[in-house]
Design a protein that fits this description.
This protein is α/β, with parallel strands linked by helices. It is 39% helix and 16% strand. It is globular, with a radius of gyration of 19 Å.
């Protein structure tokens, strides 16, 4: 039987850290004396979910989650000012110091894997291990796969037409750049429609089985505005990374154990990238889930992630005993 998420739990600590013009929401749950683990949500701009806590055994782990700049419960909402990959890396390190964590496991999904690896490359001495689901290396080629006419659009042409619909009469432009104009428009209705279409495209293609997700409630639109604005901002700016940054600096973290999880039918983040990463990461294992797409909450992905968190806890316990 596939493993379900661990039972629901509430945070034992919630706080807001001031980082320049941003206020970043941070929470802790689970065992105060457990293995510290930081979970990084996707997007960028998606915000965290209460179910992200449930990837980890609350008896074994001190579970730390935060909403990255501009999204979730962090403020100002949807702000792209002072919002770069390197700002987020600095935020992570500030959180670690504020919570008096010496070392931690760094986990994440989708964009969260990018951020986890970039943080690790800069702060390898603070990382005990990685659990990474749905690898995204932050390269222009991956953005092209997701948003151009020649990637996921070939698999979902009907959904892609809905994605392009708000761009008239700018359809001839590069979609990501055309969306930037709409998302920064003075027309509030146009901005909301663009944010909904941008977010719905990714939502629809994230699961193996048909996804009839809609963005209708005020809360859903609120979240979509942050997701679309921040994601577009990052992708326009090549995720604020040099070309092939992660692979070119992988030696900084290749000695650290990593468990990589990727759905075989992931249409958002290509399996090829996860496979390429595994080939170059000497201490990584790759678990390809045969009946899953991109979503972190498909049955096979949940099963693999919960198993991975148990495996990592057992491995670290064994390592500490050996010492």
């Amino acid at each position: 039987m596939p493993r379900p998420l661990f039972p629901k739990l509430s945070p034992y600590d919630q706080q807001v850290l001031d980082v320049g013009e941003h206020q970043v929401y941070v929470e802790q749950s689970g065992n105060r004396r457990g293995i510290p683990v930081l979970y990084l949500h996707g997007g960028p701009g998606a915000g965290s979910s209460e179910d992200h806590r449930r990837y980890f055994d609350p008896q074994k782990y001190r579970i730390i989650i935060f909403d990255q700049r501009g999204c979730g419960r962090s403020t100002p909402h949807a702000s792209i000012a002072d919002n770069t990959t390197w700002d987020l890396v600095d935020d992570i390190e500030e959180i670690r110091q504020a919570l008096a964590v010496k070392q931690w496991i760094v986990a994440g999904g989708s964009w969260g894997t990018t951020l986890a690896m970039v943080y690790g490359i800069k702060h390898a001495e603070q990382v005990l291990g990685f659990i990474l689901r749905g690898i995204f290396l932050g390269t222009p080629a991956e953005v092209q796969w997701l948003y151009s006419h020649h990637g996921a659009a070939a698999i979902y042409p009907d959904y892609y037409q809905d994605f392009l619909a708000p761009l008239q009469p700018h359809i001839h432009q590069e979609p990501v750049k055309a969306y930037e104009q709409l998302l920064q428009s003075d027309n509030e209705l146009a901005r909301f429609q663009a944010a909904k279409a941008w977010t719905l495209w990714e939502d629809r293609i994230s699961t193996l089985h048909p996804n009839h997700h809609a963005i209708e409630t005020p809360e859903q639109v609120h979240s979509a505005v942050a997701m679309a604005n921040i994601e577009n901002h990052y992708f326009i700016n090549h995720c604020f990374l040099e070309a092939d940054y992660i692979l070119n600096h992988l030696d900084n973290i290749s000695h650290i154990p990593a468990i990589i999880i990727h759905g075989r039918y992931d249409m958002v983040c290509q399996l090829q990238k996860a496979y390429q990463l595994k080939q170059r990461w000497q201490n990584a294992t790759l678990n390809i889930i045969p009946d899953a797409g991109h979503s972190g909450f498909e049955t096979g992905i949940i099963n693999a992630f919960c198993q991975a968190s148990d495996k990592m806890a057992a491995f670290l316990k064994e390592q500490s005993t050996d010492k």
